[in-house]
Amino acid sequence: MIEFSGISRSFQVGDQQVTALRDINLSIAAGDYVSIMGPSGSGKSTLLNLIGLLDRPSSGTYKLDGGDVTALDDEQQAKVRSEKIGFVFQSFHLVPRLTAAMNVELPLILAGITPAERKTRVAQLLENYGLTDRADHRPDQLSGGQRQRVAIARATSMHPAVLLADEPTGNLDQTTGREVINLLETLVEQKVTLIVVTHDPVIGGRAKRQLHMVDGRIVSETGRET
Amino acid sequence: MRLVDVAQFASGSLRGSRSRTLLMILAMSIGVASVVVLTALGEGARRYVVNQFSSLGTNLVIVFPGRTETAGIGPGMLLGQIPRELTLDDAAALLKNPAIKRIAPLTIGTSQISKDALNREVIVLGSTADLLPVRHMTLGQGQFLSAGDMHSSESVCVLGAKIRRELFGNDSGIGAWVRLGDRRFRVIGVMAAQGESMGFNTDEIVIVPVASAHILFNTTGLFRVLVEAKSRDAIEPAKRAAEQILTERHNGERDVTVVTQDAVLATFDRILRALTLAIGGIAAISLAVAGVLIMNVMLIAVSQRVKEIGLLKALGAPAAQIRNLFFAEAVLLSGIGSVAGLMLGELGVLAIGKIYPSLPVVAPWWAVLAAIGTSLATGILFSVWPARRAARLDPVTALAGR
Description:
heterodimer, A: alpha/beta, six-stranded mixed sheet, four-stranded antiparallel sheet, 34% helix, 29% strand, globular, B: alpha+beta, six-stranded mixed beta barrel, two-stranded antiparallel sheet, 13 helices, 12 strands, elongated
């Protein structure tokens, strides 16, 4: 499903060329549960942004579902993001002036789905994540765990094939963090490809495939057979 | 993304920062209101002048004897000639032309009017029944000169309102006899008090049939012939026809002058319209200032909402959509601003109308359209840059809030 061949990414910082990713070759199958671990600055987040089409590689090709997505223009990439990719962020990124329900609805609005359809989908999602009685609350009236649940509901509202989570438990305490991970793992059972970036070995260790990154390279991969 | 949703999202983010939105709307509405009020004042002045003119009569063409040369004294004067007289038959001949609706011949002179022991000097106007409609005068009481043969010299007269008051006091005076010069006239009507218009006080005149006036002043010539054209478009044909008919009747000599009231009016109209445009333009500058304000505030909004923009991009919003969202905000701001401004402006116009009732202040439709148009245009124009800036943000750095 995700095919990285010879992907590199370098940034211009001042007059210095900083290389964040070096010659990454990676292939992730549909329905995989992958964690990406490594110290800060190792390029985990850059890799995730490239997978999520938020960033473009300096070189190499990226095939998603068999099609080369590096060649697409911004608008086409936005469409791919809308239809195939969901994001969960460390700091939730909820729109503060919108209610929980409206935050969940946002991707559906952007995709131009009819209000009637949106309503039923949002109601279903809120129910799935136990947020029905929080629907009309604004983010600042919700706990951290609730906020991340809203964010996950939002990320899955368009039924994406790939869910990308960047330190999804980073701003949560241990118990709520575990709950959030459990939620994400139920999505894997529904054939969603889940990719989690974390520096927490306990959380990373739960993935089927664990990639370890150092200095812009994938240095090792461990697996957990179940 | 559906248009309704764009509008809803934009209005949601406007509501999200209430004081900013209110200030923007205030700036926009003051701009629109000042355009509306100032052009209404200019238009009011124009209408005031036009009304003054048309109170003299509409579609009026004025014929008078003698030819006005461009400068100084005409050659005839040097030879001791007086211009050929304009006669009643000349006036009657004009009526045959299809472009001419009505005519009113005019003879003017001063005479002594007396009733019992009271007497005073008055201006006597000799004319026909059509003077009333041609000159837009109104009768107060009784009846006006009777229509019919303009050569008949009936001994009847119509008094100006002030003359009647001076001669008869509280009595209506109708049916009474007065003496004008050496003849006796029966009062058949009294004019309504109109006051002064264009330097001529109709309250202090006496109107008699034109033939009676000729006898009274021992003359056959006319002072003026007032010609009313069929319509506004018929004014020029009527003018040309009058010149041609009178030239033919005067053995091919063009010894009359024909002017249109419209020519004078048009000049005033042009000057005042230009003035209205000028002050409207000055007011429009305040709209441009409001536009710059919108741009400034939108730029701040973009930098305040960098994270939100990054999120929208991550959720699959293409650059064009983000641009449209910011556009929609600007359009909403200037739209609400112009509606509020229109209401404010109309209130202002209403207030001016109350303070100066004689000034017909009305904002012309083109100024209202121009004000709304300018405010929408500046709102959109000045949001192009902020909207593009938002659309071009790099999603990764935007999400990081940098």
